[in-house]
């Protein structure tokens, strides 16, 4: 089995962005990038999508998981993250596996997965892992 994690930290504490005022929330969305400015200036688009964005953030902000007392995976776990993104507690993911654990930091911020060079790095990594990892469970 191969487990690759493309997400933020295991949430222990985080600011409640989902509870920000509309003005602050839009300011934060603009600063994070990844959303075209013309969409963030369109009241009809905001009326349609802000509730969904807030709901998504609410789930992320409020999800809690106790660290396992013992690993529940035996496969290798690799976490990817953007070097210029806010720091995340990715090391907590090593507690879920008795297998190898690695963190790969890629150029970019929150939307590092959208960078073409990172797409190639990740696809090459996955391909290599699939070629060299035993697939006896299939």
Task: Name the features.
three-stranded parallel beta sheet; fatty acyl-[ACP] hydrolase activity; TEII; AB_hydrolase_fold; globular; 2 domains; alpha/beta; 4 helices; oleoyl-[acyl-carrier-protein] hydrolase
Description:
This protein has 138 residues and is α/β, with parallel strands linked by helices. The chain has 2 domains: 3-7 and 70-132, no CATH class; 17-62, no CATH class. The protein contains 4 helices and 3 strands; from the N terminus they run E-H-H-H-E-E-H. It has helices spanning 22-32, 37-40, 43-62, 116-132; strands spanning 3-5, 77-82, 101-106. The chain has a 3-stranded parallel beta sheet with strand order 1-2-3, with no helix packed on it. The longest helix has 20 residues, at 43-62. The chain starts with a strand and ends in a 6-residue tail after the last helix. The mean pLDDT is 82.
Topology:
Blueprint: E1 3-5, H1 22-32, H2 37-40, H3 43-62, E2 77-82, E3 101-106, H4 116-132
Parallel strand pairs: 1-2, 2-3
Assembly state: single chain
Question: Low-confidence runs (pLDDT<50, min 5 residues)?
Answer: none
Sheet of most strands: 3 strands, parallel
Mean pLDDT: 82
Q: Strand order, biggest sheet?
A: 1-2-3
Distance N to C terminus: 9 Å
Radius of gyration, in Å, reads 18 Å
Proportion in helices = 25-40%
Helix segment tally = 4
**Percentage of residues in strands:** 5-15%
In terms of structural class, how would the helical and strand content be classed? alpha/beta
Q: Tell me how many strands there are.
A: 3
Counting structural domains, the number is 2
The succession of helices and strands, N to C, reads EHHHEEH
Taken from the alpha-carbon principal axes, the silhouette is: globular
Pfam families: Thioesterase
GO biological process, one term: lipid biosynthetic process
GO molecular function, one term: fatty acyl-[ACP] hydrolase activity
Protein name: oleoyl-[acyl-carrier-protein] hydrolase
